[in-house]
Amino acid sequence: MAEDNGDWRSSLPLEYRTNDSLSRFKDVGGLVKSYLDMEKFVSTTGRIPKSDSTSTDEWNSYYKHWGRPDDSKGYKYPDIPAEYNLNEDFRGQLSGLAHELGLNQKQFEKMINWGMTTSKGLYDRNQAALNGQTESLKKKWGWSAESNFDRARRTIATLSGMKADHPFIQWLESSGNDQNPVVIEFFYDLSKQLGEDQFVDEATKQQQTEAASAQRRINEIMADQKGPYWNDNDPRHNDAVSEVAKLYQTITPEE
């Protein structure tokens, strides 16, 4: 039998007697008080269930103790900018997932804010990549870039029957792919394979014909270095200058 020596731990089995954790207690009373305080703390903070043997009711009780609302409709969403387009369907799915995971309101808000921050980061990176691709395509096409972009859009409009509510048009606009340079170049190439005449209306054809005719006439006037356009003393000079100005208006009409 171990000697007392005034140490309360001397009455304990040897394996416990030498445990350093007990050295901070001066007597049995201190040990008992510490144990009771721990019990009180656990009872007020909730015991962590053992996942392999815990019932659904026990988990629900634990989650409720930590602040989970009674059902998924109890979550309050933080302010979300309209551009994130969280419809009621998707909100319901998020709330349902949060409730299933046992999140309280504070945890729920952190999850939503994390989602918005992550989404914005992805959008910004994608937008930067898209802008870079667009600039590359413009450099590839050079001075004809704008007309090529227009031709691609006319092709899309024609193939969709000129219907703004066509499912493909709606998808392009809702997804932002109506500005996607990959899409634009694809439909531009397609228009060349099928023939441009199929993708312009009569008014556009007439405008193109008149512009081509005007350009030919400008070339004729400008090529005549001895003609009235280049000779200030020629009585026909003002008329020639005026004609050229009108021809340029035909080529690039005001919107």
Structural class by sheet pairing and helices: mainly alpha
Radius of gyration: 39 Å
Total E-strand runs: 0
Largest sheet: none
Shape: rod-shaped
> What order do the helices and strands follow?
HHHHHHHHHH
Distance between the amino and carboxyl termini: 108 Å
Poorly predicted regions: none
Descriptors for this entry?
rod-shaped, 255 residues, mainly alpha
What would you say this structure looks like, in words?
- Among the domains are: 8-44, no CATH class; 142-199, no CATH class; 202-251.
- The longest helix is centred in the middle third of the chain and has 37 residues, at 105-141.
- It has ten helices and no strands.
- The protein has helices at residues 14-17, 28-45, 56-65, 88-101, 105-141, 145-159, 167-175, 181-194, 202-223, 237-251.
- It is mainly alpha-helical.
- Helices cover 62% and strands 0% of the residues.
